[in-house]
Amino acid sequence: MLYSKTEGSGKPLLILHGFLGMSDNWKTLGTQFASDFQVHILDLRNHGRSLHSEEFSYEIMVRDVFEYCQAHNLENINIIGHSMGGKVAMLLATTHPELVDKLIVADIGPKFYPQHHQDILAGLNAVDFSKKPSRNEVEEIMAKYIPDFGTRQFLMKNLYWQEPGQLAFRFNLAVFNTKMDEIGVSLQENLVFEKPTLFIRGGNSNYILDSDFENIKHHFPNSSIETISNVGHWLHAENPTEFYQKVSSFLK
């Protein structure tokens, strides 16, 4: 079963994080949404505190989320997915439309994305935990590969004390090293979700281009696409206020 943080009451709202993220990334927004919904923030397979497994694909992650909903008797759910979590949410909605009422996808489209996390993976793999590095030493190693401070801080949230004096990453890096191509796969051409869908993109991000609108409408004919200006791919973290407003007005 997937690890989750649950808060609030009412109609279920599931939140799915992106690649190398976890439920903690959505804690503040989750609490805000919990004033109107029963919020479930999940750690997806091989992330956060959820199970580590050699199996890693969108089909497997959708099965995990579907089984989570069954185990908690959740139906007629709203779902928010960011990046990789958005791909999971899209596949869940198109293959289990009876389960999903409204879908919100943050800064990802249904198209194929070529691999683009090579520098991040190189930085993560450069950390040798057998040498028992401190948190500062881990960041110094990663900085040689990952110059962006915000990206490093996002990744550093995955550090935890496995035992006294021994740090580790919560995510399953060994599997990501071999299954990275799974992250970029496209939604199958024949999959369609007819219910209300909101895509929100970052104005400074290149994940959803104007040229992607036609493909989005093909899979999600009842969709709208909105932009938050002056933010990148982590739009919900860079401008949580506008993100919350756009999602809340859509869910009303």
What is the compact description of this entry?
The chain has helices at about 25-35, 60-70, 85-95, 120-125, 135-145, 150-155, 175-180, 215-220, 235-240, 240-250, and strands at about 5, 10-15, 40, 75-80, 100-105, 160-165, 165-170, 195-200, 225-230. By secondary structure, it is α/β, with parallel strands linked by helices.
Work out the radius of gyration.
Answer: 18 Å
Query: How far is the first residue's CA from the last residue's CA?
Result: 30 Å
Main sheet: strands, sense, barrel: 7 strands, mixed
Structural class: alpha/beta
Q: Which regions are unreliable across 5 or more consecutive residues at pLDDT < 50?
A: none
What's the SSE pattern?
Answer: EEHEHEHEHHHEEHEHEHH
How would you describe the shape? Answer: globular
Overall number of strands: 9
What percent of residues are in strands? 15-25%
Helix content: 25-40%
Biggest sheet strand line-up: 1-3-2-4-5-8-9
| Number of separate helices | 10
Average pLDDT works out at 97
What does this structure look like?
The chain is built from 10 helices and 9 strands. Helix 1 (27-33) links the parallel strand 2 and strand 3 (38-42). It has helices at residues 27-33, 58-71, 84-95, 118-125, 135-143, 149-156, 173-179, 213-219, 235-238, 240-251, and strands at residues 4-7, 12-16, 38-42, 77-82, 100-106, 159-163, 166-169, 197-202, 223-228. The strands form 2 sheets. Strands 1-3-2-4-5-8-9 form a 7-stranded mixed sheet, with helices on both faces. The chain has a two-stranded antiparallel ribbon with strand order 6-7. It is an alpha/beta fold.
